[in-house]
């Protein structure tokens, strides 16, 4: 059994740790709230951009020529998977869940897959497990702008246009609420504005009413074909930006919940250790009293 002094040290140590976890929970709650507002703020723009893209892609003649980023390849030889994870731990099973979901997707896909990681945890886990990581982006800001994802989107768009890859998927964690997060893998390229089921865009444009959008008449300057050259890469970039925001909100909320649970567990552990210390102290006092009584009894008999 531990001594009273040892238990006091453990109680002090657990209390110090609980102060750290409590502070982390508070910081993560603030960051999660900001990330949630940022996620919601981009959805209105994304919805209107998708509506315009849907209309432009539906124009007569546009579907015949086809934009390269809208064209499905006949033969799929290689695919990219952009895996969005965190740079730090202490977020419960957040990183492990998205990596496990990505692994199941890679194994189920018949096409050879190369991985592009966003976040150190995903990079480390995928490299350790032997996957082909061709690019890695670390240290994503807590409040990223769309310029922070330009290098990633430019890489995948360029490789797709050059024929180095035939499909691009993105693995991320969809933010539902502060306590609910869902790992997902969605298709990023080729973009399918006329049938967006299964696309990364589907999560935040599913409320857009596309009824009659294709029949609406707009005057486009320049032509719809030239307009697609500008809209499609931008919208692809917007999709990637959105899923990174979703993942950041999920990471912060997961860390908030994990640290809050750790703080609660630390409090329960302190209570258990305090009870054990009191029992040890009571046992020590009882033994001392027995020694005194025994000594007095011995003196009386002598």
Would you mind describing this structure in some detail?
It is a single chain. By secondary structure, the protein is of the alpha/beta class. The protein has one domain (25-256): Pyruvate Kinase, Chain: A, domain 1 (3-Layer(aba) Sandwich). The chain contains seven helices and five strands. It has a five-stranded mixed sheet, sandwiched between helices. β2, α4 and β3 form a beta-alpha-beta unit. α5 packs across α7 (224-301). The protein starts with a helix and ends with a helix.
In short, what is this structure?
The protein is α/β, with parallel strands linked by helices.
Average of pLDDT: 82
Rg, alpha carbons? 29 Å
Q: Which CATH top level class fits? A: Alpha Beta
Question: Approximately how much beta-strand content do the residues carry?
Answer: 5-15%
Assign the structural class, choosing from mainly alpha, mainly beta, alpha/beta, alpha+beta, or little secondary structure: alpha/beta
Task: Kindly report the spatial arrangement of strands forming the biggest sheet.
Answer: 3-2-1-4-5
Query: What is the count of distinct domains?
Result: 1
CATH architecture: 3-Layer(aba) Sandwich
Looking at CATH, which topology would you report? Pyruvate Kinase, Chain: A, domain 1
Please count the helical segments.
Answer: 7
Largest sheet: 5 strands, mixed
User: What are the segments in which pLDDT stays under 50 over at least 5 consecutive residues?
Assistant: none
Query: What is the distance, rounded to the nearest whole angstrom, between the alpha carbons of the first and last residues?
Result: 36 Å
CATH homologous superfamily identity: ATP synthase, F1 complex, gamma subunit
SSE order in H/E notation?
HHEHEHEHEEHH
Give the fraction of residues assigned to helices.
55-70%
Shape: elongated
The number of E-state strands comes to: 5
């Amino acid at each position: 059994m531990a001594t009273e002094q040892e238990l006091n040290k453990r109680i002090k140590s657990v209390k110090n740790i609980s102060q750290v976890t409590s502070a982390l929970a508070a910081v993560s709650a603030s960051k999660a709230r900001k990330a949630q507002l940022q996620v919601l703020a981009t959805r209105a723009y994304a919805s209107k951009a998708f509506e315009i893209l849907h209309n432009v892609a539906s124009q007569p003649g546009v579907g015949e020529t086809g934009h390269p980023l809208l064209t499905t390849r006949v033969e799929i030889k290689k695919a990219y998977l952009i895996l969005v994870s965190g740079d730090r731990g202490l977020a419960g099973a957040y990183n492990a869940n998205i990596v496990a979901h990505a692994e199941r997707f890679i194994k189920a896909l018949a096409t050879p897959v190369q991985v592009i990681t966003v976040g150190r945890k995903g990079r480390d886990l995928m490299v350790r497990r032997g996957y082909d990581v061709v690019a890695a982006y670390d240290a994503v800001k807590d409040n990223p702008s769309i310029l922070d994802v330009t290098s990633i989107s430019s890489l995948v768009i360029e490789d797709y246009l050059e024929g180095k890859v035939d499909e691009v998927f993105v693995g991320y964690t969809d933010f539902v609420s502060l306590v609910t997060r869902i790992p997902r893998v969605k298709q990023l390229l080729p973009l399918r504005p006329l049938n967006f089921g299964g696309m990364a865009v589907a999560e935040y444009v599913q409320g857009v009413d596309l009824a009659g959008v294709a029949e609406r008449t707009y005057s486009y300057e320049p032509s719809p074909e030239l307009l697609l050259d500008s809209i499609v890469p931008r919208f692809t970039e917007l999709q990637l930006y959105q899923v990174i925001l979703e993942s950041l909100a999920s990471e912060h909320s997961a860390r908030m919940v994990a640290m809050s649970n750790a703080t609660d567990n630390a409090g329960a552990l302190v209570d258990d250790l305090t009870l054990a210390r009191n029992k040890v102290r009571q046992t020590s006092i009882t033994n001392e009293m027995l020694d005194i009584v025994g000594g007095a009894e011995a003196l009386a008999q002598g």
